[in-house]
Design goal:
Strand order of the largest sheet: 1-2-3-4-5
CATH superfamily of the largest domain: Divalent-metal-dependent TIM barrel enzymes
CATH class of the largest domain: Alpha Beta
Distance between the termini: 34 Å
Order of helices and strands: EHEHEHEHE
Radius of gyration: 16 Å
Number of domains: 2
Structural class: alpha/beta
Number of strands: 5
Number of helices: 4
Largest sheet: 5 strands, parallel
Helix content: 25-40%
Shape: globular
């Protein structure tokens, strides 16, 4: 059976973020996702999600400056500490919200591809270990380079 979740960061924008779970529930969604819930109080968000019987399918890991057009923090050797702080914050929210998955955006690193691959792989292992301790899966979103030029992705498989 298909299950859908609505992204509250992009849908129901006519409502405040804290009122979007109600809107999602009213049109029949049973699961929600939020790109970056970190501006909201975790317990308040968990309470409203529970009130409307909504599960949280996915939240994004904080990604440094990526949303503002920067390189992000997932594949850069000089942003490892920032990435690990993001993992700690995402763990707190994922645990509080009962999120099933945490999405990691690879970003647009301007360093050589080999180094970026190594750092991204190490960071993904770290995040999977930390979040796996609370039963949360790590997912990686593939964004095409037409909509987001220079988005980093793994090299093609042979």
């Amino acid at each position: 059976m298909l299950q859908f979740s609505t992204n509250l960061s992009t849908m129901f924008r006519e409502y405040d973020l804290t009122d979007r779970p109600r809107a999602a529930h009213e049109v029949g969604f049973r699961a929600i996702e939020m790109q970056f819930p970190y501006e909201l109080d975790c317990s308040a968000l968990a309470s409203v999600s529970k009130k409307y019987a909504l599960s949280v399918s996915v939240i994004n890991l904080p990604c440094g400056d990526f949303v503002q057009g920067g390189e992000g923090n997932a594949a850069l050797p000089y942003r490892i500490e920032d990435f690990r702080e993001s993992v700690a914050l995402a763990r707190k929210y994922a645990e509080g919200l009962g999120a099933q998955n945490v999405n990691i955006l690879a970003g647009t690193p301007s360093i050589d591809r080999e180094t970026a691959n190594i750092i991204l792989a190490d960071n993904l292992r770290y995040a999977a270990t930390v979040l796996g301790e609370i039963g949360v899966s790590v997912v990686v979103e593939a964004i095409n380079d037409i909509d987001r030029a220079a988005f980093f992705s793994a090299p093609p498989m042979p």
